[in-house]
Structure to design on (194 residues):
């Protein structure tokens, strides 16, 4: 039997709505891990359905690090000004701005990372593998995986949240889309260092 306290606990952990949390717990027969996974998968489906919508509203969030030497401006987009004024949306924007301050990504998405930058990283990895005496076919396999990893590490969407290291920015955006019911996208961002 799923209790109201169980539903409340799952809502606090995931940010899901009350009915969604109750339904997930019922389906998972009270198992919190399974219910969380169900909510995550549903969130991905919801985000996929909203992918072709226009996100023309939103906010610009700013973050200035405590030492006053790092500043971030981040544009987070949504479909309506109603969602843009929502505290959960503002919190998401601020969480992503913290990631920009902490990791200094060079692009928003992995596919946006410049090929020149990727090639430099791969050349260094090739040189290291050759020094270690790895066979050519193994080196090529290593480099295939390395390219994906480099693109993830250098993009904002591939970074882990500062506030929840088990979740990437991309996952947080999908969850935000599901929770708020609108397409959410990261627009521009800038990080300034003193």
């Amino acid at each position: 039997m799923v209790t109201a306290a169980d539903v409340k606990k799952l809502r606090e952990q995931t940010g899901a709505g009350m009915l969604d949390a109750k339904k997930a717990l019922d389906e998972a027969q009270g198992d919190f891990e399974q219910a969380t996974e169900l909510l995550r998968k549903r969130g991905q489906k919801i985000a996929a359905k909203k992918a072709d919508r226009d996100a023309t509203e939103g906010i610009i969030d700013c973050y200035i690090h405590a030492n006053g030497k790092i500043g971030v401006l981040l544009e987070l987009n949504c479909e309506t000004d109603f969602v843009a004024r929502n505290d959960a949306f503002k919190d998401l924007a601020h969480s992503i701005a913290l990631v920009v301050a902490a990791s200094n990504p060079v692009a928003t998405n992995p596919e946006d990372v410049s090929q020149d930058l990727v090639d430099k990283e791969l050349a260094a990895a090739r040189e290291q593998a050759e020094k270690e005496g790895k066979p050519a076919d193994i080196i090529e396999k290593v480099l295939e995986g390395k390219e994906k990893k480099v693109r993830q590490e250098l993009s904002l969407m591939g970074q882990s949240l500062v506030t929840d290291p088990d979740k990437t920015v991309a996952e947080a955006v999908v969850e935000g889309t599901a929770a708020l019911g609108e397409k959410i996208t990261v627009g521009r961002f800038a990080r300034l260092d003193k």
In short: Strands lie at 57-64, 70-78, 185-193. The chain has three domains: 4-49, 57-108+155-193, 114-153. The radius of gyration is 20 Å.
